[in-house]
Protein 1
Amino acid sequence: MPDLDDQAISKVAEVGIKSQLDEVKNLNVEIDIDPLKVIAGTLNSVAIAGEGMVMKQDLRIESMEFNTGSVAVNPLSLAFGKIELTHPTEAEAIVTLTEADINRAFRSDFVRSKMQDLNLEVQVDSETAIVDTEKINFGLPGDGKVRLSTEVVLQNSQERKTVAFTAVPKISSDGQRVVLENVEYLDHQELPPAFTEAMLDEAKELLDLKNFEVGDMSLQIKRLAALKGKLILQSEAIVHQFPSS
């Protein structure tokens, strides 16, 4: 088997991860090895740090940190430019999303097309209005809440008004996604229930951890923090295989 060092094996992992992403601004993979342990099929640890990673459904991640303990691998696979795990390994992952990241996904053609199929009429100030699905905005004001808003157009005057509500992001019972609960409308204006539910469902779908998985792994949220301008998800991961190019 040819000589293998940290940089060579790290490059293999980096190429594999990049092949799973639509875009990435920066990606750094550091694999710590002991040459004698590698021959026996063990890597000391794997650390991955990424910025500007575009995942499934056009969801961009501001940053991701991913760290494992020792990893059991097939040493022969390394010689052929792959990292083949012989046993699943545990890891910790921290994902940071910004308001801009989540709004980018909310404004995708995929999400807009689903919203257009809904009943978009609403009563505002005793006047019929139409919801503008292109003006949906996801905000992170801090205080552990999110703010969802959209504009409505009054049919008679064509005046535009903003209708908004806050909700509290929580971890779903299975730990697989973020759900929004405790909806509170602002200024006593409400959207059609079906539209409100659709916005909540889209947020839940976009914040499903399956969208952040790279390679054959499963993630489970342990903690979340809704801070001003950003949402941080701290998760545990079981990695079955790292991605290969």
Protein 2
Amino acid sequence: MTRVLGRVTSINVRKVLWALDALGESYEREDWGLPLRDPHDPAFMALNPNATVPVLVEDDGTALWESNGLLVYLAQTRGALLPKDRHELGLALQWLGWQASELNPAWGYAVRALLRRTQGYDDVGKIDDSIRRWTAKMEILEA
């Protein structure tokens, strides 16, 4: 059975779980990622040298990582999550990349400070800047 390594509080893990659910795929999820299980553990690092979640492990032992890559992989190997029309496909992939490269970095500091309450993320100026940048990105999304 396919395994997904990662904590459910990670948006990147949740994307992969949502895709598997949408495809009707069975899977097992294992808690990895701080504060649950340290992804710097040698067993995890053997699967993903970046020490980040999620990691998808196939029945044959193949381990894949990077959430947006996993979404495309699942769509290609399991079913029709992506549009067939080339223009619609281009738009879907465009927004998939945008989420990872533009939206996530914009909100990262504020999420760690305000939601996760990560130690060391208490600079009010950085929190305000993160919220401002996230708001600007959301305006692009909603336009």
Protein 3
Amino acid sequence: MNNHHRATSNSFKVSSGLFALFILLSLASTFSCSRQAANVVWIDELGPQYAISGYGETQANKSVDGNPLTITGKVYERGLGTHAEGMYRIKLDGKATRFSALVGIDDEIKGNERASVEFIVSARDKNNITQTLWKSGVMKAGQPAKEVNVSLDGFLYLDIIVSDAGDGSGYDHADWCEAKIEYRGTKPEPVKPYASQPYVLTPLPGPEPRINGAKVFGVRPGSPFMFTIPATGSRPMTFAAEGLPAGLKLDTSTGHITGVIDKAGTYNVKLTAKNSLGTAERTLRIEVVDKICLTPPMGWNSWNCWGCSVTDENVRQSARAMVEKGLINYGWTYINIDDCWHGERDPRTGEIRSNEKFPNMKALADYVHSLGLKIGLYTDCGPKTCAGYAGSEGYEEQDIMTYAQWGYDYVKIDWCYCEGKDPKVAYKLFGDAIKRAPRDIVFSICNWGRNNPWEWGESVGGNLWRTTGDITDTWSSMSRIGFGQAGLARYAGPGNWNDPDMLVVGNVGWGPELHPARLTPDEQYTHISLWCLLAAPLLIGCPIEQIDDFTM
């Protein structure tokens, strides 16, 4: 009895042990299978061409400028280099488990005060509800990388976003280092941007003459007067102007009105344009007063296309094209050179010189004027421009007088390297100098909307003021700026305009390598419509000679 009981007991212990071992092996097998099912895809493998970058192109395993991914001296082998405003949308299947990365501003712009971004991770679930999973907070250049590690359980789409932190996207070079997704189902894949074909809604002008453009023009007493009658219709066309004030003359074949009006007052001039098919008439009101820029400026600026690669010939090409393509016939007027024209100052006099890309600034102005257009240039309140050329700090009066001597009609004044400055004081130095200049110069304040320039821009002599940071050719950038101007309308009016930045249509690129604007055709129509509704300055940002029928 005892032996049998002992044998039964031993048999039970063996069976129990085998059962426990079976359970452990089963659990280990399950755990092993689970581990094997958790795959990893690195973000750089998905195709950086599908990511939106506010500047340049998103790069795999490199910074946006093509350098090794580096944050505070540490080099990372894998990841994406991009730029605010940037976004990458990735399709999941609800079975992705985790996203992780190390993020920060790349060292290639270390020390630049304008660089500031915020990294954002958001995801959309099966109910089409988007949740923000993580934010880095505002990050500056030279700040150590921050880690993001979030669960993706149940989500169908992942967005990794770089915002400009609300102060413009200049120099916002952002890195997603060692970025990867862990998943158990279908491999995640990038969402390719929507593509659509351009379509033209605007009818072509008829062959009969029609006078277009603004109906009012302002000039200061004693300043050079220059106005081109903007008229569409078949050429040849002859022009007439009845009631021109003393001091002005009309070229009847080109429609260019030039001269000087010494006597202040209001002058109503009857303009006529005539060709073989008919005659068009319109009254132009000329206000000879201390206020100019009575309508928002319309023209071209070199920055969004050529950036620092801009040359004298680039400027001349767009000026010629503004005439040849007929934009001048709708009132487009200004040809503006942005940053990177400056050379060194004369060591004896301090006078600013142009660099080798611009051999003769006065000759360039004379050429543009000969076409019936006006010309502008750029400087900075600080000791250097944003691109590192000579700024106007300490030379405000001298530089304005130099520009006037060269014959320039417009100046954009930026806000780089201005730490500790009071913008109202700094910009007033330019405004006072412009008032003393012997010609009218439109004064564009460009401090990226900091310190609410719409509240004091007029008091320092400004004619327009940037309300925002730099625009890029993405929907997120354009729509945020365009729909973010609410409340500013009361500060705009004749002589004073809110400036939401230049246009991003046509071929852009901020350097010698250009690409078609990444806005869809619908988004480009929205862009132009918004800027018109805002009574904003309209400055074309593409080479005008490259404009296609859709952009035109």
Protein 4
Amino acid sequence: MQRANPRKLLTNIVRDRLRERLMSGTYAPGAKIPPEDELTREFEVSRVTLREAVRGLVEEGYLSRQHGLGTYVTSRPKLRNNLDVNFGVTQLIESLGMKPGNREATILEKLPPRRISDALGIGQDEPVVVFERVRTADDRPVVYSIEYLPPRIISQPTEQLRNLSGSLYQLLAAFGQSVSHGVATIKPAVADTKIAQKLQVELGALLLYLEQVDYSADDRPLLLSREWYRTDELECTVYRKGPA
């Protein structure tokens, strides 16, 4: 059995304790964190361990380093979306210790555009459930989404979605419709009047647009989602293999 690295365990402990202080406001946004000597004495760790913990919090967006000046608390951490993993927005927000929520949710059934029905593998004369909402992180609007579901996917979809407070993926799984994988298209977008109001950004603000079809294990389309992300609140990463 492989033994855990003691220094790595200490680093994680220190990082978690510092993160708690940042999230609770003990270290205020814009403030400089205490000097290394003070923190190493308090946590009884080496400078190397402390620096690794701080580096992790910089990567998570909680801290920023200013050359020659020190390390400062950011105004708020960005959502970091690893595009290699098919995370839902709810899980993405929760992964940073923030509280996910919905605003301005609307649900209706209507005939979709041709490209939506084709993507979902349904006839043009079949209605879909359209679920529109603003996703929040700690009550801040971060994503505006429109999701299209064939009514056959879950029973009483309007009622189920009206009462939804968490992840749509979890709701689908509860009805035996687990998402196995998804295919996404990502491109830049700008906020029109409607989206600017929804996300509380300036008209014409740069956004990240993601459109994705989610599939079951047997490749049945379950859901088509269209999402507009605030770029000042979201940072995306992609794992890229070398050419070899």
